[in-house]
Amino acid sequence: MLDxxxxxRKIFDVFIYIIMCLVIVICLYPIVYVFSMSISSxxxxxxxxxxxxxxxxxxxxxxxxxxxxxxxxxxxxxxxxTLIGTIVNVIMTVALAYPLSRKSFFAxxxxxxxxxxxxxxxxxxxxxxxxxxxxxxxNTRWALIIPxxxxxxYVIIARTYFETIPESLIESAKLDGANEVTILWxxxxxxxxxxxxxxxxxxxxxxxxxxxxxxxxxxxxxLQPLQLYLVKILIENTQDLxxxxxxxxxxxxxxxxxxxxVIMVAVVPILCVYPFLQKYFVKGVMxxxxxx
Amino acid sequence: xxxxYVNNIASxxYVNNKAAEGPLIKxxxxxxxLCRNIAxxxxxxxxxxxxxxxxxxxHYIPMYGVIIAFKDFSPSxxxxxxxxxxxxxxxxxxxxxxxxxxxxxxxxxxxxxxVWGFPIPIMFALLLNELKNGLFKRxxxxxxxxxxxxxxxxxxxxxxxxxSPYGGIINVIIEKLGYKSINFMSxxxxxxxxxxxxGIWQEFGWNSIIYLAALSxxxxxxxxxxxIDGASRWKQVIHITLPGLAPTIIILFILQVGRMMKVGFEKxxxxxxxxxxxxxxVISPYVYRVGLLGGEFSFASAVDLFNSVINFILxxxxxxxxxxxxxxxxx
Lengths: 292, 331
Known about the structure:
The structure holds two protein chains of two kinds. Chain A is mainly alpha-helical. Helix content of chain A is 74%, strand content 0%. In chain A, α3 (60-66) crosses α13 (248-291), α4 packs across α12 (226-235) and α10 packs antiparallel against α13 (248-291). Chain B is built from 17 helices and no strands. Chain B is flat. Chains A and B meet through α1, α4, α5, α6 and α9 of A and α1, α3, α7, α8 and α9 of B.
């Protein structure tokens, strides 16, 4: 009787391991495949010989990608938006979340309601578009930074974290004559590095991956971020990187392979970073889930 | 600090007592209460000043701007100068062929997503929870979060490449198996499957984080006790794990239903094309197309407003229902 029970448990364990291995394969396969396609020899790509690991080796696709000044400009723009955008996001979010975390702050409740309401109801895309136009932000870099300066969800996460910092710390600093801004800068911020890391990661990934506001607000190609450029190469097929650089047959081979290379170029920075920040963002999701 | 707090309460009471004595005094004492608080919290106010202005400008002014849904807006006349037209745009929308199609598509996509997409992270979390803590578990978790960090553009780009009838891997496999290749992206019958499947692929690992957190907060003593009573692993899941997860599941379900009318249009705009409009077109891409590309600001705004209102009503009523039935609610 006991043995049967143990056997059952063993079988169940094996079953779980099989499923988990399947999960790994499902999640990784597309990326590995894209990577292999991007560095295989063009002939192997054309003959459909690549299934998992690269066949042959060629840097040709990457060379074409990196030789293209448009890609570099789009890349530069994305880095700019990510950097400046995240700095603005974090400053604004902390400046709002800290006062909201203070139980003694008289306007705490009304402001909290004031901002959470916007999570459930919004004016929608048309009135926002008209507003951005009126403010003169249309077709400027700031159209991607200012309208999304604060995410309500992240304010709630930060506020929840700040509330866990003991009130007595703040009180004693006050007795020493520090004002709230000094307290925030000198005491709260150093203690809040984990949550600042969460904010940076979430906001930065958001900027890195976003294309829609650029699609609406930035017709000027010189200002467009990488993702919008990818839309043109991968989905609309309106940009042909190999157009003038290669003769006929080679060109059609390269056009396909370039797409794989371009995907890798867009994805690799995030793939390199996120596993190291995993413990932070898991924490962030959990804090957010408790309160939101 | 404590003194200040007492004073604060005391002054609050003071306001209430005086209220009976007349409106003028009431206003006066309320004002003085306000002034004292502002003086006391001046630095906090300084901090929230810019964020609050941000919300007024970029969230509340667009809410006010919604009145163009009831006007015949022309950019040259401005919002105030444009003439009122009442509910004309709403009538126009509901009399068009689009209204039914758009709403049906939104609801069906959500229904499929609830049926297929909602349970998978829960099952994944339950299975993961059965693994003993260790390297393998961590690897599975890390790998399952990966797709979440890939942008929609890249996801749709990969889908387009993989499903391409000209050398896309899926079609190559189909041909090797002896069937005819399928032009997936322009076949309406495939749109929903592709949309839902890629959505699940991208988010199941990420969405399981919350459930895993809830699982780790279940008291281990409960399991000990159950084991002593001779409960099997399966019984433990039914009687301890699932009840422990229930509040989280319900909250996330409310949120999911509350988002029902807001189908992520970033992905749809990239995925759809006129060949699949019949099943792929939903409200927000339609608003984008008609409003921003077509320049019919007022009409598009009316459609969007209808969408938001339905969404808001859904959220509020599901929340209320849940509160009544299960005592679990968002607010």
